[in-house]
Amino acid sequence: MSARWDGGSCYCQNDCECMDEVGDDDGYTVTRDSAVAALPVECGPTPDSPYRHVCAAPVNYNGDTEYDYELDQAVSCDEAMAHFTSSDEHLAGKDFSSAFSCPAEAYQVKFVVNVVAAECCGTGASACWADYSHVCADPSSWTPSTVYLPDDGTTCDQIMDYYTQDGQALLNDDFSSVFDCGGKNVEVVETVNAVAEKCCGASGTSTCVSAPFVTGVLTLSGITAEATEASKGVLRFAIADVAGVERDTVTIIGVASARRRRLQTGVVVDYVIETADSAASILAALDAAAADPSLVDTAIAAVDTASVFAGATTEGITTTVAESAPPTPAPVSQATPSDGGGNGGADAASAGIIGGAVAGVAVIAAIAVGAYVYMRRAKDSADSAPMAEVEVLGTITGAVESGVLKDAVPVPSAPPLMPPPPPTGRNFCSACGAPVQGPFCSACGARA
User: Fold this and answer.
1) Are 396 and 410 in contact (CB under 8 A)?
2) Scanning 209, 298, 428, 440, which has its CA 20 to 30 A from the CA of 201?
3) Is 60 contained in some domain?
4) Half-sphere CA count of 432, side-chain side, radius 13 A
5) In this structure, are 175 and 225 located in the same domain?
6) Looking at the structure, do residues 238 and 305 belong to the same domain, yes or no?
7) Nearest in space to 103 (alpha carbons), one of 160, 146, 59
8) 164 and 257 co-located in one domain
9) Interval 405-419 mean pLDDT
């Protein structure tokens, strides 16, 4: 009930039409909300309109309000509803004079009701409005107005209106409270996951994702990778405190210079959290830290007793969910043959390289020996022959398998090693190269 006092008289206002004077400068309205459940609103001329239940709160419907959605010339809300409920229109045969139930209605019915409500219901709350927030593992990350289909501007709320209609995967599913994906068929799970990917904030985490692990990257500036590696336990505690989990559920799986990740400066720290299926609350906490990285700086300072990170600043933190933990990078292998260590591939490759090198040396040595034998024989056949220097002009490369040189080819830029030409001079035959004494060669008879 409300009472109006205009300076000279006081009278009760309990009729809707009387409330149109609320706010006038020449009077005051005093209300007492304990006397009645609700006060009448400043209503239009059609408080009992047959279309009022298009609104979630029927009292908010105003039939005289202009409706101009995709119209060149505006009409009244009553006129718009009269058109939409006429024969062959989307709302034909629908009754909005009493409570209207939307969940199982076709997408086009929900769409029209929502559009009319946005124009004609004051607050815009439609009788077909539904809470779909529990599509997300973290309901607070639901973004109803995000565009889901860029081609036609369909929003997240609208795509869920579509998927919950008769004949679609999510018919009769309620996402206004915790949604249990257990026992749901593959089509339901895949639909929920697809919507969540675009409509559940930066993480895109679906309520149907089994996510025993949260992984992410913490980026710091003002500190070296070496110092961070040496004190990564500080970061483990800090991340756990920010995420609101036990410290032993956090593992630092890698620390690297940002330059190795093609970033500008700083250090990147990969981490993983074992969630025990409580990913929603963890993601919510870490999303808050992503929006305000100083939360991580505060957590680091609280556990950094040695002040190793005193000059460091958190540049960002990312999160994602995973069904299994990422592998921890293995240290440089120090396996020995006796321990059966797991670096066999590398050891085999090393053995192949070493074997190839040894074989290559052996080939060169054989060529050198051959050259030496040739020259020795030449010397033996002619004591006065000068010694010749042998220069290795190239090597032979190829794969060595079972001790046999296979597919060997000469290095293109180095010609094969050839024996030196027969020596020439006045003490040797110019025709056959044999040593001569006198004017004629004793071997071929040619004139020396």
Assistant:
1) yes
2) 298
3) yes
4) 11
5) no
6) yes
7) 160
8) no
9) 38
Asked if residues 107 and 161 have their Cβ atoms less than 8 Å apart, the reply is yes
Adjacent-strand bridge partners of 136: 206
Rounded Cα–Cα distance for residues 215 and 81 (Å):
51
Average pLDDT across the chain, whole number: 73
Same domain, 220 and 265: yes
Query: In this predicted structure, what is the pLDDT of residue 443?
Result: 62
Residues 6+ apart with CB under 8 A from 156: 132, 142, 143, 144, 145, 146, 148, 195, 198, 199
b/e sequence 35-55, b meaning 16+ C-beta within 10 Å: eeeebbeebbebbebbbbbbb
* Whether residue 298 sits in one domain with residue 217: yes
CA distance 186 to 46: 48
- Tell me the per-residue pLDDT of 96-121, one tens digit each, with 9 for 90 and over: 999 999 887 888 999 999 999 988 99
pLDDT at 445: 67
Please check whether residue 19 is in contact with residue 42, taking contact to mean a CB–CB distance below 8 angstroms: yes
Q: End of a domain among 322, 342, 360?
A: 322
DSSP SS3 for 29: strand
Q: Flag whether 261 is in a domain.
A: yes
Residues 228 and 308 in one domain: yes
* Domain C-terminal end among 271, 301, 322: 322
Cα–Cα distance, 174 to 130 (Å, whole number): 9
- In 3D, which of 1, 97, 95, 111 has the Cα closest to residue 48? 97
Please write the tens of the pLDDT for every residue from 300-328: 999 999 999 999 999 999 987 776 666 65
Supply the pLDDT for residue 224.
92
Amino acid, single-letter form, for residue 343: N
Cβ neighbors of 414 (< 8 A, separation 6 or more) are 393, 394, 395
Q: Are 58 and 117 in contact (CB under 8 A)?
A: no
User: How many domains does one find in the chain?
Assistant: 5
The token pair that represents 280 in the structure block: 């929603």
For residue 138, what pLDDT band results from cuts at 50, 70 and 90? confident
First to last CA, the chain: 144
CA distance 157 to 151: 16
With respect to residue 267, please indicate whether it lies within any of the assigned structural domains. Answer: yes
Is position 269 within any domain? yes
Q: What is the SS3 assignment for 45?
A: coil
| Same-domain pairing of 300 and 222 | yes
Shared-domain flag, residues 226 and 283 = yes
Residue 446: give the domain boundaries.
414-448
pLDDT band at 184 (very low <50, low <70, confident <90, very high): confident
